[in-house]
Amino acid sequence: MVSYIPKRGDIIWMNFDPQSGHEQAGRRPALVLSAHEYNEILGLAQVCPITSKTKGYPFEVQLPEDLKINGVVLSDQAKSIDWKARETSFIDECPVSTLTEVLSKLLVVIDPDELLL
User: Fold this and answer.
1) How many separate domains does the chain show?
2) Residue 113 has what pLDDT?
3) Mean pLDDT by groups of 10 residues along the chain of 117 residues
4) Is residue 71 included in any domain, yes or no?
5) Which of 11, 40, 60, 108 has the most C-beta neighbours closer than 10 Å?
6) Any domain includes 116
7) Which SS3 state, helix, strand or coil, does residue 39 take?
8) What CATH number is attached to the domain comprising 93?
């Protein structure tokens, strides 16, 4: 039985392999975007990878320095993952202000106002 279930705002360790093309790979931290109930029921979670290699891209969101993980959230690389199968473990909680910034940048990427009819 699984004792930890990711919730929105958690920073977790997870294995991003297998990957393809420009996707982040390997065991790395990620920010959970999806709600606890979604993650628990479906066994999936929406996450954004975190990298320590800051490049200054517009979709990077800097994590506060007082967290256990340093780096930037890659808000344009959100993906759905099977958190049970990807060796997920809790690291820290992301501040609401940082999570809000990540979600705002993600909305720019998915642009919900541009409906395809």
Assistant:
1) 1
2) 74
3) 88 79 72 97 96 94 97 95 90 98 92 67
4) yes
5) 11
6) no
7) helix
8) 2.30.30.110
Residue-number span of the structural domain to which 102 is assigned: 10-108
Identify each DSSP E strand in 65-114 by its residue range.
72-74, 79-82, 89-93
Residue 36 lies in a domain: yes
Kind and range of the H or E run holding 28: strand 27-32
What pLDDT does 4 receive? 92
Residue 66 has which token pair? 């007082």
In angstroms, the CA 7 to CA 65 distance is: 21
- In order of 51, 61, 114, 116, the CA distances from 11 in angstroms are 12, 14, 30, 33
From residue 14, give the alpha-carbon distance in Å to each of 93, 109, 115. Answer: 15, 23, 33
Q: What token pair was written down for 18?
A: 């297998």
| Per-residue confidence (pLDDT) for residue 109, from 0 to 100 | 87
Its pTM stands at 0.88
